[in-house]
Amino acid sequence: MQHESRATTAPTGGPATTATPGGPTPESKGVLSPGRAAPMVSIDRYRPSAELAPFVRHYWIPRWHLPAGATHEERLLQYATCNLVVADDYAAVFGLARGVGSRILTGDGWAFGVMLQPGTARALIGAGRSVDSLADRPEPLDALAGGDGGLAERIRSLRHDDTGMVAAFEQWLRARRLDAEQGALINAVVDAVETDPGIRSVDDLARRFGLGVRSLQRLTAEFVGINPKWLLQRQRLQDAAARLRAEPSTGLAALAAELGYADQAHFSRDFASVVGLAPGEYSRTVQAETGSDVSE
């Protein structure tokens, strides 16, 4: 198990590694208010063993401590994949929140999370469920095809041992003997969207992989539960939010053009409809949370 950087971020932070272990650690773009979480939530991330990288993007293990009576809301623009999560009171595979995902934290807590590769959830849940249904009704681990074999209780018993939790999960996953080829194409499609800014449209993405648009739509619906347009929009908005946090003086017109929008108005409408704040308002809010002075 290879240890990633310790950070103060949300319980479903961004990817800790590329698909190949040993690659660089990209910036986490999923957490909308990392400054607000910093005093209360810590997270450790770990890369999967090399042979499991086709199935696991990374492990995330958050722990939080809030004063009595206090609450903290984590707001997230999730990556285009599902997460397997074990905590004291639940253990399930969770699907994508179409808009902003959120979770209220209270008291002291922890979780063991697995950001799955985009092709993995389909294999884990079996033929009885569709991946898109996981967004509204997570699949309990003990209801997975073949059950969980005591995985949840094993992880709970190791809650203070990160290495042990990862080892327990990897032993369980190896025993399932998943076929890496089954999810290889969707993994490559999502990776291309996340890493190639030259892909601006569904047609661009379909051409990259030699697929018709309808075939691409069926692929993303089956494995991730969303359509290609959503996939491209989500990546644009994650990129936009990350830039607005890191560079609050970024011009919105230039940022819109860089992200492939036809104009600033279209970008601002997209951003506000999903995030709930206009881009400029979002930038000022997150900078205030970190103590920065951002003018109107």
From TrEMBL:
Residues 7-26 have a biased composition (Low complexity). SMART domains: HTH_ARAC. InterPro entries: AraC_XylS_family_regulators, DUF6597, Homeodomain-like_sf, HTH_AraC, HTH_AraC-typ_CS. It comes from the Bacteria. Residues 1-34 are annotated as: Disordered. Keywords: DNA-binding, Transcription, Transcription regulation. Residues 183-285 form the HTH araC/xylS-type domain. It holds the Pfam family HTH_18. PANTHER family: HTH-TYPE TRANSCRIPTIONAL ACTIVATOR RHAS-RELATED. This is Helix-turn-helix domain-containing protein. It comes from Herbiconiux daphne.
